[in-house]
Amino acid sequence: MSLPVDHPPVAARKIGILLINLGTPDGPDAKSVKRYLAEFLSDRRVVEIPPIAWQPILRGIILNTRPKKSAHAYGLVWREDGSPLAAITRLQSAALQGAFGPDVLVDWAMRYGNPPIAERLAALRQIGCDHILIAPLYPQYCAATTATANDKAFAALATMRWQPAIRTLPPYHDDPAYIDALKQSVEASLAALDFEPDAIVASFHGMPERTLELGDPYHCHCQKTARLLGEALGRELIIAFQSRFGRAKWLTPATDATLEALPAKGVKKVAILAPGFSADCLETLEELAIRGRDSFEKAGGTHFAYLPCLNESRVGIEMLHTLLARELEGWNITA
Q1: CA distances (Å), origin 248, targets 48, 204, 209, 254
Q2: Does residue 54 contact residue 47 with C-beta atoms inside 8 Å?
Q3: What is the DSSP letter of 145?
Q4: If I label 178, which of 72, 204, 212, 277 is the partner at 20 to 30 A Cα–Cα?
């Protein structure tokens, strides 16, 4: 049935997929990092301290001391096409574009920084996406990552007069497609080394210990991922948690302490991977590949290798395609 002559233009119906990752500053400079950290560390999902107590610390101390140090770290890993996390997420989106047919559009956004979630959701809606799959790229569920990405998306939806139908990508920490992709990636990386590791460390982003006590499943998800990957590889992995911040007790063992202790135990050759990250970023390329190597070698280690994340690799994209296609099932826009 044709529309009346005076009817406003109507975009052809489409389905949207919005890949979401954590975020990044716009540049490796102190001003950009300060702006990014102000947004990130003001998120109540990330820092669960009452704002009346936390904001004076954040504004008075942290944002006046940390940005310069973090900017230096970002400068060590910044690429010609920008922040590694943003660049890789953009490449993942591009690799998936068209993979689900002409009526499914793939876009990407950052929870903190640019491009913002609200902007990209509005853009997808504007071009006719009346069904949108929100896909936080966090294998292990955590309130400080998965939940806050969904929170931001739902807040944007609350401002829309005509909302699209929405689904969210669930955690995939134990999904066979994810474990197999990790296995293939790790085996390929190990085969390219000129040494045989005495041990393999699986480093996950740390969280305050109280998040586990409050019922967050993140710690359990990390343990299961490492166990399943170890079984797939045929060798046990050493589990550790990185990126501690502040004085609270964090999940243990700590990655830096683990690396520093291994040489004294006779582990002189080590490989480390970060299965909780869907794309390489500051925490993997600077904290693990640079600082991790330095601390391990200073403690007596002789061989160190950082194994990259799945990123936009063939196995990584195939894995994402499998997960996303499953969540799109039943959405028939031609009906």
Answers
A1: 11, 18, 8, 13
A2: yes
A3: I
A4: 212
Q: How far is CA 134 from the centre of its chain?
A: 14
> Are the C-beta atoms of 139 and 276 separated by less than 8 Å?
yes
Between the alpha carbon of residue 3 and those of residues 6, 7, 15, the distances in Å are 8, 6, 22
Interatomic CA distance for residues 169 and 182, integer angstroms: 19
The answer to whether 16 and 132 have CB atoms below 8 angstroms apart is yes
Burial of 86 (0-12, 13-18, 19+ CB in 10 A): buried
Half-sphere exposure in the Cβ direction for 64 (13 Å, CA): 7
Closest CA to 222 of 282, 169, 182: 182
- Fill in the DSSP letter of residue 114: S
Concatenating the DSSP letter of every residue in 226-268 gives HHHHHHHHTSPPEEEEE---SSS-B-SSBHHHHHHHTGGGT--
Instruction: Tell me how far apart the alpha carbons of residues 239 and 216 are, in angstroms, rounded to a whole number.
Output: 18
Q: What is d(CA 259, CA 273) in angstroms, rounded to the nearest whole number?
A: 12
Instruction: Decide if 257 contacts 180 (C-beta within 8 A).
Output: no
Residue with tokens 């740390």: 206
Q: pLDDT digit string (tens) for 223-275? A: 999 999 999 999 999 999 999 887 789 999 999 999 999 999 999 999 999 99
pLDDT score, position 335: 41
Tell which phi-psi region holds residue 24, choosing left (phi > 0), alpha (psi between -120 and 50) or beta.
beta
Query: What does the alpha-carbon distance between residue 159 and residue 144 come to, in Å, rounded to a whole number?
Result: 23
Write the DSSP symbol of residue 332: -
In terms of pTM, does the model score above 0.85? Answer: yes
Q: Which amino acid is it at 130?
A: D
Q: Which of 181, 182, 199 is nearest to 262 (CA)?
A: 199
Where are the alpha helices (H) located in the chain, listed in sequence order? 30-40, 51-57, 63-77, 84-96, 117-126, 148-157, 176-191, 209-213, 218-233, 255-261, 282-285, 293-298, 314-328
pLDDT, average across residues 108-135? 97
